[in-house]
From TrEMBL:
The keyword Phosphoprotein does not apply. It comes from hydrocarbon metagenome. Gene3D superfamilies: Vaccinia Virus protein VP39. SUPFAM superfamilies: S-adenosyl-L-methionine-dependent methyltransferases. Pfam families: N6_N4_Mtase. This is Type iii restriction-modification system methylation subunit. Keywords: Methyltransferase, S-adenosyl-L-methionine, Transferase. GO terms for molecular function: DNA binding; N-methyltransferase activity; site-specific DNA-methyltransferase (adenine-specific) activity. Belongs to the N(4)/N(6)-methyltransferase family. The lineage of its organism: unclassified sequences, metagenomes, ecological metagenomes. It is an enzyme of class 2 (transferase). GO terms for biological process: methylation.
Length: 479
C-alpha cells in the first residue's frame, strides 16, 4: 500500500449502503432485431429485409432498465466478475440541476405547436453531498469487481465533485493505478463575470492493475510543426510520424453537442459527443472487448461501441434515457440486442390487452387500440398482413402537461411489431420510426407486411410514446 493510500475521505454515513439482503428480479422485456421503416403505404417485405434471418444472431448488446447498483450486483452474481475491459461512466455531477429533455409537437394542418419537457434525472446540490458520496462509493467498488485484470474505469465529472471522487477512487483502486486525469475542454454557452468561464470536464482514468489495455491515440501536428519539422528544433532523432503526434491528456479538438440541428443531437440533456467516446474506447479496449456504461443516458457508449466492434452492456433508470437509446440503436441498424429489467421486488409483466377481450381504457393508464388485422394470402408461402393503429391514449397525468388536445399520432414516438408473440418476451422484428425529431402527425400508423403464411397469428404491437411510456396490445387471428 502506498503511503498516500492511508489517507481516506470520511463522512458519517460512509459504508451504510448494504445490498446483501435485497432480492433481485431479472426480466428480459424485449429482443430487438433492428429492421426499421417509416413508410406509409409500400409493402414492407420482412423476408427481403432480413434474408429470413429473424432471431438467429446472438445479441451483441444488452440495455438494462435498472438502478445500476442492483444491476451490478446481478452481474457480479451471474458470472460477470472480472469480465469488462472498459467501463465508462458519466454520472450526475452534484450540479443542483433538474435535467429535462424538451421536444416539439407540431400539427401540420393548422400550424400549431407546443413543447413537451420530459424529466430525465435530478442531480443533487451541494447540500446532498453526503447522499451523493453514499451513491457513488459502493458503485465504484462494484465497478472494480467487474473489471478484467487488464480493464480500465473512466469516470467523467466536472469541478463540482471530481476532487472528492478522485480520493474515493484512490482508496478503491490505489493511487498507483491512477493513470490520467483527462481534461476535456469545450467552448460555447454563457459565462459569468464573477469568475473564469468553466469550460472543461475531467475524466479520471484508473487501471484495475498495471497491465491495462492501451492503444496510443494520435492528433494531427500543428501547422507550425508541419512547417518547421521536428528535426530542426529537437535534433536528428526526432522525425514526424505518419500517424501524427501522440495525444496529450488535454483534449481541445472535440466540441460539445451545441447545435440543436446537429445530426448527433438527440435532445438528451448532458449527451456526450461520439468522438469523445470513440477516443476512449479505441484507447482502452480491443475489438471484441466487453464494455459498459452504467449511466447510459442517450446510449452514446453503446452506439460507438457497436460501431467499433465491441460487445456492450448499458444501464439507465430513466425511461426517457432508455427510449432514446433504443431508438438510437434501432436507427443505427445495429445487430440484435436486448432490453432487460432489474428490480428489487418481482413485478409481473403488465397484462397485454387482447383484441378479443378488449380492455376498457382506464382514466389514468395509457391504452392502445389496433384495428383487427387484415390478412390476405399473397402466394403459396406468404401472406399480406395489414396492421393499423386506431387509437392511442397517453397516461392522463402526462396529458395534463399539454396545452392542447393533440391527436394520437403526435404523441407516439415509435412503434414495434412482434409477428409471433410468445406471451413472454416481445421479439421486436419491425420498428416504425419517425423521419424527423419533431413530433408532427406524419408518423405512419399502419404497415403492410409480407409474412410467412400460417393458419394462426398472435401478433403483438408495442407503442412508445413521447413521455417514455410503452404500451402493448396482442392481436390474435385464426383462419
Ligand atoms: C449525465 S447523464 C449520462 C449522459 C450520457 N453519457 C450520454 O452521452 O447521453 C447521467 C445518466 O445517469 C442516469 N442515472 C442516474 N442515477 C442512476 C442510477 N442509480 N442507475 C442508473 N442510471 C442512473 C440518469 O438517468 C442519466 O440518464
Amino acid at each position: 500500500m502506498l503511503k498516500e493510500d492511508k489517507i481516506k475521505l470520511h463522512w458519517d454515513s460512509k459504508g451504510s449502503t448494504i445490498l446483501d439482503e435485497k432480492e433481485i428480479a431479472h426480466q428480459t422485456i424485449e429482443f430487438i432485431n433492428p429492421c426499421q421503416t417509416s413508410s406509409n403505404d409500400s409493402i414492407f417485405d420482412l423476408w427481403i429485409q432480413k434474408n429470413d434471418q429473424v432471431r438467429t444472431e446472438e445479441p451483441n448488446g444488452r440495455i438494462f432498465r435498472a438502478d445500476n447498483l442492483l444491476l451490478m450486483k446481478f452481474l457480479i452474481d451471474n458470472g460477470y466478475r472480472e469480465s469488462f475491459d472498459l467501463i465508462y461512466i458519466d454520472p450526475p455531477y452534484l450540479s443542483s440541476s433538474a435535467y429535462n429533455s424538451t421536444v416539439k409537437i407540431k400539427e401540420t394542418a393548422n400550424n400549431t405547436s407546443d413543447y413537451v419537457s420530459r424529466p430525465v434525472f435530478l442531480d443533487h446540490g451541494t447540500d446532498g453531498m453526503e447522499e451523493y458520496l453514499n451513491h457513488i462509493y459502493p458503485r465504484l467498488k462494484m465497478m472494480k469487481e467487474l473489471l478484467s485484470v487488464k480493464g480500465s474505469l473512466f469516470v467523467h465529472l466536472d469541478w463540482h465533485i471530481s476532487h472528492y471522487v478522485k480520493i474515493l477512487l484512490d482508496e478503491i483502486f490505489s493511487s498507483a493505478n491512477f493513470i490520467n486525469e483527462i481534461v476535456w475542454c469545450y467552448g460555447g454557452g454563457s459565462g459569468s463575470k464573477r469568475h473564469f468561464h468553466r469550460k472543461h470536464d475531467m475524466i479520471l482514468w484508473y487501471g484495475k492493475d498495471k497491465e491495462y489495455i492501451f492503444h496510443p491515440q494520435y492528433r494531427p501536428y500543428t501547422a507550425g510543426t508541419l512547417e518547421r519539422g521536428l528535426t530542426r528544433v529537437k535534433g536528428d532523432k526526432y522525425q514526424l510520424h505518419q500517424e501524427g503526434a501522440l495525444m496529450q491528456d488535454w483534449w481541445t479538438d472535440i466540441n460539445k453537442i451545441l447545435s440543436p440541428t446537429a445530426a448527433e443531437n438527440l435532445k438528451f440533456p448532458t449527451q456526450k459527443p461520439e468522438a469523445l467516446l470513440k477516443r476512449i474506447i479505441l484507447a482502452a479496449s480491443n475489438q471484441g472487448s466487453l464494455v459498459a456504461d452504467f449511466y447510459a443516458g442517450s446510449g452514446t457508449m453503446a452506439s460507438v461501441s457497436q460501431e467499433l466492434g465491441r460487445r456492450w452492456i448499458i444501464c439507465d433508470e430513466s425511461p426517457i434515457a432508455i427510449q432514446t437509446s433504443l431508438e438510437r440503436l434501432i436507427k443505427q441498424g445495429v445487430g440484435p440486442f436486448t432490453l432487460e429489467e432489474i428490480s428489487d421486488a418481482y413485478q409481473p409483466p403488465a397484462e397485454p390487452c387482447f383484441q378479443m377481450r378488449q380492455r376498457e381504457p382506464s382514466p389514468v393508464a395509457s391504452y392502445l387500440r389496433m384495428k383487427p388485422p387484415s390478412i390476405q394470402p399473397f402466394n403459396e408461402s406468404s401472406a399480406l398482413m395489414l396492421l393499423i393503429i386506431e387509437d392511442y391514449k397517453a397516461q392522463e397525468s402526462n396529458l395534463a402537461s399539454l396545452k392542447e388536445d393533440w391527436g394520437f399520432k403526435n404523441l407516439i414516438d415509435f412503434w414495434e411489431v412482434d409477428l409471433n408473440y410468445d406471451g413472454n418476451i416481445f421479439n421486436s422484428e419491425v420498428q416504425v420510426l419517425r423521419d424527423k425529431k419533431v413530433y408532427d402527425d406524419s408518423l405512419s400508423t399502419s404497415i403492410k407486411l409480407r409474412v410467412p403464411l400460417r393458419n394462426e397469428y398472435q401478433v403483438a404491437i408495442k407503442v412508445y410514446d413521447i413521455f417514455g411510456d410503452s404500451t402493448m396490445q396482442v392481436l390474435e387471428w385464426s383462419k
